[in-house]
Amino acid sequence: MLARTAESYLDDAMGALEHGRAERRKALDAMPVPVYLADPDGVVTYWNRACVEFAGREPQLGRDRWCVTWEIHTTSDELLPHDECPMAVAIKEKRTIRGEVAIAMRPDGSRKAFIPYPTPLFDHDGEMIGAINLLVDVSDEQASELAEQAARCRRIANALCDRATSDMLRTMADGFERNSAALFATA
Predict the structure, then answer these.
(1) I need a labelling partner for 98 at 20 to 30 A (CA). Which of 9, 25, 138, 162 fits?
(2) pLDDT of amino acid 4
(3) Are 85 and 102 in contact (CB under 8 A)?
C-alpha cells in the first residue's frame, strides 16, 4: 500500500465530497488510489485516473454498474457477478463493507487483487444518495497468500487416504497456484 492507510485516503475522499463539484473533482482526480462514485442504483457516475490504470479500461459513464472493473473473481477464481460485488452489497444494504478481497480481471487478461472500501453516502435527511469506493491494490500480498494456500492444500492432500478428498484439494491447489502466478505476473 502507499505510505498512508486506506482509511486516511478514504477520509480525504469523503472530505472532498463536501466541496463544490469542481473542487471535489480536482481533489479526487489528484488521489493516487482508485476512487469512484455510484448513484443509489449503482450506476458509476465518476472515477479518477487511478481507476482506469487499475482496471485496465475506461469505465462507461452511465452504463457500468457497481464497479469500474471488467470482471471480478473471488480469490478461489470463481466469477463474482458485479451485482454481488462489495459495492453492490454496500448500496443495496446501505452499509459499509470492509475486509473483502477480490480479483479484478482486466480486458488484457491480467489481474489485480484488491481490497474495496465501499461506503454509502447519505444526505442531511438520511436518504442514501450513492456510494464511494476506494480500491487498494494488494496483488503482491495476495499472490503470496494464494501460493501458501496452494501449498497447504497439497500437504493435506498428500496426507489423506481418501482419493476423492485428495483430488478435490489438489484441484483447489491448482486454482490457487493459477491465481498466484497471474498476480505475480502483474504485480
Answers:
(1) 25
(2) 62
(3) yes
**pTM of the full structure:** 0.78
Quick one: DSSP state of residue 135? E
Please answer whether residues 105 and 119 qualify as being in contact, where contact means their C-beta atoms are separated by less than 8 angstroms: no
All domains of the chain in start order, with CATH: 6-137 (3.30.450.20), 143-186 (no CATH)
Strands (E), the chain: 35-38, 44-47, 71-73, 102-105, 111-116, 119-122, 128-137
Do residues 10 and 119 touch, judged by C-beta distance below 8 A?
yes
d(CA 92, CA 95): 8
Cell of 123: 444526505
Query: In the structure, how many helices (H) and strands (E) does the chain have?
Result: 6, 7
Res 3: pLDDT? 47
Residue 19 C-beta-side C-alpha neighbours within 13 Å: 13
How many Cβ atoms sit within 10 Å of the Cβ of residue 91? 25
Instruction: Give percent of the chain with pLDDT exceeding 70.
Output: 95
Q: CA–CA separation, 6 vs 71, rounded Å?
A: 23
pLDDT at 185: 64
Who's near 176: CB < 8 A, 6+ residues apart?
Answer: 76, 146, 147, 149, 150, 153
